[in-house]
Amino acid sequence: MGKNSPGRKQPKKATSPIGWIVAAVVVVVGLLIGVSYFSNQSKTPSGTAGSVPAPTGSVPAPAGPVKTDAELGAKGSVKGPDSAKVKLVEYGDFQCPSCGVAHMKQEPLLEPLITSGQVQFTFKHFIVVDANVGGSESQWAAEAAECAGDQGKFWAMHDYLYEHQNGEGKGNFVLSRLKQFGATLGLEPVAFNKCLDSHTYSSRVKQQSKEAENLRLEGTPSFLVNGKLVKDGDFVKAVKEAVK
């Protein structure tokens, strides 16, 4: 996870018999409350954050020119050549503050190594914030990046999401807001919005999160250099040492 910055960990699972009993009681109570609620309330429209409204007003313009994946030497979520000596993989969550710090402060230090062909950087989704704060904004944001990738702008959306974080579960990454992000990045709206509404990439995002769980990653961001987990969080140092 990002050095000197608290990451986002997966919720711990109960393992003791008492824990299972408590969990069962909670589930039963939750079901009763849910039945009571839905019998008296209309359903929340798909793609909203429940009682949390999306921020109002126009979305910020990109900080600089919006580059396509091809212009960045990328193919989808992979930036850099297959022939690179060093393979860097990040498992991240777009709502995770530490992931945002890593993107803004540390990853730019590796750009020269990526553009020179020495490092290949792959981004994968690991959805952890939704389980901690409720809602599905991390999942939807991940799907938005994949949908943007259909139009050759995975990394443009990836960067924009991290650079415009606004709290966790606060409505900033609900579907209506993500559609505004797409328009700001110059994505063709009909195709992008359809991709979001149909959750075209839901399975891919969930599969990558499951992959992270199988690797026993504890939270985000998590970095692997040539398949080895960077345990102290200083992935920049690990990459530079591997390049030597």
DSSP strand content: 5-15%
Characterize the overall form.
Answer: globular
In the predicted model, the low-confidence regions spanning at least 5 consecutive residues are 2-6, 20-51
H/E series: EHEEEHHEHHHHHHEEEH
- Total number of beta strands: 8
Q: Please give the alpha-carbon distance between the first and last residues.
A: 23 Å
Oligomer category: single chain
Radius of gyration: 19 Å
Description:
With 244 residues, the chain is α+β, with helices and mostly antiparallel strands. It is 43% helix and 11% strand. The strands form 2 sheets. A 6-stranded mixed beta sheet has the order 2-3-5-4-7-8. Helix 5 (137-149) packs parallel to helix 7. The protein starts with 7 loop residues before the first strand and ends with a helix. Mean pLDDT is 84; it is low at 2-6 and 20-51.
Write the layout of secondary structure elements.
Blueprint: E1 8-9, H1 17-38, E2 74-75, E3 78-79, E4 86-92, H2 97-106, H3 111-115, E5 119-125, H4 129-133, H5 137-149, H6 154-163, H7 175-184, H8 189-197, H9 202-214, E6 219-220, E7 222-225, E8 228-229, H10 235-243
Parallel strand pairs: 4-5
Antiparallel strand pairs: 1-6, 2-3, 3-5, 4-7, 7-8
Helix pairs in contact: 5-6, 5-7, 7-8
